[in-house]
Amino acid sequence: MNLTHWKYDFKSSLVVFLVALPLCLGIALASNAPLTSGLLAGIIGGIIVGSFSGSHISVSGPAAGLTVIVATAIADLGAFDIFTLSVFFSGLIQIIFSFINGGSIGNYFPTSVIKGMLAAIGLILILKQLPHAVGYDADFMGDESFATNGSNTFGDIMLAIEATHMGAIVVAIISLLIMLGWEKGAKGGRRVFTLIPGALIAVIFSVVLNELFKKYAPGMTIESSHLVQLPFNGGAKDFLGNFMMPNWANLSNPKVYTTAFIIAIVGSIESLLSIEAADKIDEQGRVTNKNRELLAQGVGNSLSGLVGGLPLTAVIVRTSANASAGAKTKLSAVLHGVWLISCVVTIPHVLNLIPLSCLAAVLLLVGYKLTKPELIKKMYSKGWNQFAPFMVTIVAILFTDLLVGIMIGMVVGFIFVIKSSVHQSIVMVNEDNRFLIRFYKDVSFLQKSALLGMFEQIPAKASVVIDGSKNVFVDEDISDLIEDFMKRANVNEINVELKKSSLALSPLFRE
């Protein structure tokens, strides 16, 4: 942490706090877990993981992508305190992953897929927060899945249109205008705009406005069901009373360890994806040590399990909010955890006055920044090898969920990588019945079809040079194919010359 940038980190930490608060509660609710378990995971993700992490802008907390796994595991294990035992052991497994270089998996995610994930999250935020912005809060804040509770993203928007609340709409619109105006003032360099985040001003204004609605326009009042709802009244004693130790009597239950392993695997993948995305949106271009990140996540999960919290991961929504708010160092992530525990303990009654429509406006702005049209134009300009996996990832995430969409995007990405590799590895040119086939890099069985097509184009009595002098490795399948061609060449009076290399590993091309 570098206190030189404390002004930026202080401001961004407040924005992340406002984003994290409803998400922590919503994810706990969707997981059929105690609401405090989500808050505990958010606090630990900020203070503990934020301190241990090597990422400068990443923020950790309970993840929407784990809600189905968590809800199913709690039901299967029979009690939440048994489930927290699995969370504890999942952290230990992640710590082991960090020491066996498990973080290196994150180096194999294609850039086009990561950028597609960022754009998809932006679109999801816009689509999912629109209902909350107009006062329809049937779904939990932070949901990222296309289909939920028998409905889907577009169905929820249609239902929201029929159940709009004028007070919520007014709050959301004014909140957006305040934040946009505040950003404009900050760009102008005025000190007050650079020290205080516009999101905080929007939240304060929304609380005051709703209180005015109660007094002067009762029909516009936003009821408590559409406000933040913390599960306790305040005070350290009340907060500490919600801590829950794991049920150590279930150490012999094999389901505990199966669940722990699943959480560790899925949580690690989601964290590595989020870290890759965080590095992409870090304006200073810093690169995170991924093994250190797994260590930080492991420490955080083990501690979360010990006190009754949900499993946590690095989370792209909070990370994106952090980056767009101007965070410079991980002090921002740590401070957001401090604000969570401080405000939850001291002023829960004030937090319970915040309209969800205002917080939805904050997330709508974050979503827009993640999926600006300029990004799509930029990816299109890079060609189909980049644009196709990018678009497939967006569509797949929108219509499934984060992890499934990423897997689909990666499959498409690897197909284009293989296709590109095939075209770039072997080149054939010809002039006056003379052919040159040159291997520009290592050639594997993936190039077999391309090479076979080249051989079929060579007519009888031609002269062929197969140049392997610039590569080190040639797959045995390719060597066999060349030897078969040379046998047929004698019959067709084709003269074949091999250019070999002292560095070649293949016997066929070794000098």
Molecular structure report:
This protein is an alpha/beta fold and 511 residues long. It is built from 21 helices and eight strands. The strands form three sheets. The chain has a four-stranded mixed β-sheet. A two-stranded antiparallel ribbon has the order 1-4. Strands 2-3 form a two-stranded antiparallel sheet. A hairpin with a 2-residue loop joins β2 and β3. α7 packs antiparallel against α9 (198-216) and α11 (254-281) crosses α12. The termini are far apart.
Number of helices: 21
| Class by alpha and beta content | alpha/beta
Overall average pLDDT = 89
Assess the beta-strand content as a share of residues: 5-15%
Rg over CA atoms, rounded to whole Å, is 28 Å
Binned, the helix content reads 55-70%
Shape: elongated
Oligomer: single chain
The separation of the N and C termini measures: 56 Å
Q: What would you say about this model in short?
A:
By secondary structure, this protein is of the alpha/beta class. Helices cover 63% and strands 6% of the residues. The chain has helices at residues 6-30, 35-52, 67-77, 80-99, 111-133, 153-162, 166-187, 191-195, 198-216, 236-240, 254-281, 290-307, 316-324, 331-346, 348-351, 356-370, 373-381, 384-399, 402-425, 448-456, 476-491; strands at 60-62, 147-148, 151-152, 312-314, 426-431, 434-439, 463-467, 495-499.
